[in-house]
Design a protein that fits this description.
This protein has 371 residues and is α/β, with parallel strands linked by helices. It is built from 14 helices and 13 strands. The strands form two sheets. A seven-stranded parallel β-sheet has the order 3-2-1-4-5-6-7, with helices on both faces.
């Protein structure tokens, strides 16, 4: 590559809006990446604010079809559409978001001599662990990639196992990050011992296991209050379960919030609860909470332990009684809350999105020189 500006083609085969952790990540990531021109492939409708993160945003037209009998013809059709775009754009490098989904397959099948950096996000790994056909897709993308970027070594190990340890030398850990400069630290110190005002934010589905936090309140000695922010398939079930447990007045539900609004509200709470019980690639919301000075009670998943370590209060994933003990300890021990608040701010400073962008750009340039 002779030009100073690095031209990257990437995309996520979803509606172009900052609606999930992966979409928020790429929105921040390519805005933070220096000396880079990014073309992003997404889906209509397009959130107008989304356009500002990329130099060019193109919408895909091939009708999506999930895994099943129509998947192979769908990927073939998508490959033809993407192939025409690759020929037109002629990027220096391709970043395949998700390791094995349809758009990544289409990009790898049309890249030719263009180096590919694939980026794992978590749902792709979960899918590969459940389905042989998804594992085949992951393997194909991994085989075509000059490097495979993962946010934690825990996720790297799972991918290494799924791909039969054929691509160990391509796995590269680059932790994700957030725009730390936008975070506002809570300006009030921890109050006295007593019940806490807790917040949980994320998708309301089985893996995120919000039910653990709700059922934990039924086991606590202190009458903590919980605000659940988000949307998902389990919203009504969670509400009904709170009523069944006699927690109607202690559990409040709020709809999904744009990140700017979520960040504005975070400093109003005493602590953040993270409840995922299965796979979590990174958990950006953990760093978001810590960057605002909130103590974090978190399920001790491998990736979460790798990110937080002793800067948060851990409990057994999916175990509401274990979580209840952790919450009561935080409620009773003001000194521990203050210590965790300080540790949270220190830990969050390790995860600035500008560092993620710089490291991913350097990795891409290394792949280009090798090609």
């Amino acid at each position: 590559m002779t030009a100073k500006l690095l031209h990257i083609l990437t995309g996520i085969n979803r509606t172009s809006e900052p609606s999930t952790g992966s979409m928020i990540l790429v929105n921040d990531l390519y805005r933070a990446m220096p000396e880079t021109h990014t073309t992003f492939l997404g889906r209509a409708p397009v959130d107008q604010t989304w356009k500002t993160a990329f130099d060019r945003l193109l919408t895909l037209s091939t009708t999506k079809r999930p895994q099943g009998p129509d998947f192979a013809p769908y990927v073939d059709e998508l490959t033809r559409e993407v192939g025409a775009l690759v020929a037109q754009i002629q990027p220096h490098a391709i970043h395949a978001q998700y390791l094995g989904f349809a758009l990544s397959l289409a990009l790898t099948r049309t890249a030719g001599s263009i180096p590919i950096i694939s980026i794992a996000h978590g749902p792709d790994v979960m899918a590969a662990e459940l389905s042989a056909s998804e594992r085949d897709c992951m393997y194909e993308v991994a085989a075509a990639s000059a490097a495979i970027v993962v946010p934690t070594s825990a996720l790297a190990e799972r991918i290494d196992r799924l791909t039969e340890r054929r691509f160990t030398d391509r796995l590269t850990v680059i932790p994700w990050g957030i725009r730390l400069s936008d975070a506002q630290v809570r300006n009030r110190p921890p109050s006295g011992a007593g019940p806490l005002s807790l917040v949980h934010a994320g998708r309301l589905d089985d893996n995120k296991s919000t039910i653990t936090a709700i059922e934990a309140l039924a086991h606590t000695d202190l009458p903590h209050h919980l605000t659940v922010i988000g949307k998902g398939t389990l919203r009504e079930y969670l509400s009904q379960r709170a009523i069944e447990l006699g927690l109607r007045d202690r559990v409040r539900f709020a709809p999904f919030l744009p990140r700017a609004e979520l960040w504005r509200r975070l400093p109003n709470f005493d602590a953040f609860v993270f409840t995922t019980r299965g796979l979590e690639a990174f958990g950006l919301v953990l760093i978001e909470a810590q960057a605002h000075g909130l103590p974090v009670a978190y399920s001790a998943l491998p990736s979460a332990r790798e990110i937080l370590g002793s800067s948060g209060a851990s409990y057994t994933p999916g175990d509401s009684r274990s979580m209840a003990v952790a919450l009561d300890e935080l409620g009773r021990d003001v000194h521990r809350r203050r210590t965790l608040s300080e540790a949270a701010l220190t830990n969050a400073r390790r995860y600035d999105i500008s560092t993620t962008g710089r490291r991913l750009r350097e990795l891409t340039l290394t792949a280009l020189r090798a090609s």
